Amino acid sequence: MVFRNTIIGTTWKQKIDAIDTSNLSVSYTLFDGDASSDIMDTATHHIKCISSANGGSVYKHTCFIKCKGDAKITDDFINLSKESMTDTFKALESYVIDHPEIY
Predict the structure, then answer these.
(1) Per the confidence metrics, is the pTM higher than 0.85?
(2) Is the alpha carbon torsion for 103, 60, 69, 74 positive or negative?
(3) How many other β-carbons are positioned within 10 Å of the β-carbon of residue 73?
(4) What is the pLDDT of residues 21-76, one digit of tens each?
(5) What is the rounded CA–CA span in Å between residue 58 and residue 28?
(6) Could you tell me the domains of the chain?
(7) What 3 state SS string does the chain have?
(8) What is the CA 13 to chain-centroid distance, rounded?
(9) Which residue numbers delimit the Bet v I/Major latex protein domain (predicted)?
């Protein structure tokens, strides 16, 4: 997996931990990365889409970071990670809106 302009670096291995199509959820783990490999051992993401009352949906994205040794995650790291996840969501949202026939 290759990332562009993110705090977590440019390359990471990714493992799909679980896909639950009936509950619209997926879990995956990033590991063996480059730039943040001195701080972060793994980042496990849990994503779930929930139907909302107005006919739309709610997107929930939780990330659990396992640090290496005594390393600590800074507020800047957290904020840039959130920004990266938001940018990824917006790109996916735009693609789905532009290609409704796929889903």
Answers:
(1) no
(2) positive
(3) 13
(4) 999 999 999 888 775 567 888 889 999 999 889 988 899 999 999 998 898 988 98
(5) 19
(6) 13-98 (3.30.530.20)
(7) CECCCCCCCCECEEEEEEEEHHHCEEEEEEECCCCCCCCEEEEEEEEEEEECCCCCEEEEEEEEEEECCCCCCCHHHHHHHHHHHHHHHHHHHHHHHHCHHHC
(8) 13
(9) 11-97
